[in-house]
Amino acid sequence: MTATLLGALSVALGAFGAHGLKKLVPPETITTFETGVRYQFYHVFALLAVAILYDKFSADWMRYAGICFIIGIILFSGSLYILTTLKATNTVGLSGIGAITPFGGLFLIAGWIAMFISIMKK
Question: What is the pLDDT of residue 77?
Answer without folding.
Answer: 96
